[in-house]
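sorry for the late reply, my laptop died twice this morning and i had to redo everyting from scratch. anyway the thing you sent over, i finally got around to it. pasting the sequence first so we're on the same page, its 170 residues, then the predicted structure underneath. double check i copied it right bc i was rushing
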Amino acid sequence: MSLIQSSTFTNTNVSLSPSLSSSSQKFPTFHPTLFIKPSFSPNPLSVSPRKSPFFTTPLFCKSPEAEEEASPPDDDWLQKLPEKSKPLYSHSLPCIEAWLKSLGFCQSKDDRAVWLIHKPDWHAQLSLDVTDLYIRYLRSGPGNLEKDVERRFSYALSREDIENAVLGGP
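ok and here's the structure:
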């Protein structure tokens, strides 16, 4: 944020209110229309219910060796995890991210809310949406899925229930 010196600030839209015209008051009152927030920026976390929260760009995971090198900070967050019977909404985001990494998920570089997992029998993308957690089992992975299978889980479910449902596969 840059500062503008008052001696160099000249704006014809600034007006003094009558109460400020006395010499005891030093600050002008600004016209409110000069400070309207632009409304062109939609909430980046919101997802239209008609659109899938997943994207079609392939995701790449780090090698297991690179994951091991990056895991010590995650151990701290894993120790801070609430009980597995607690709803997922009671978990902090760093705890959820550490938990997903411990399950074998890796985070997308393009979209930090999207995670990928490769299991011997299936591949899946997981998306942390504003209101729900989505898992999409990919037809392109191993197995014989005729189409992608998508499931949605509320953050009100326990971490244990979500883990069992997600790792149970399609």
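The beta strands are 106-107, 114-118, 123-128, 132-137, 149-154.
thats about all i looked at so far, will dig more tmrw
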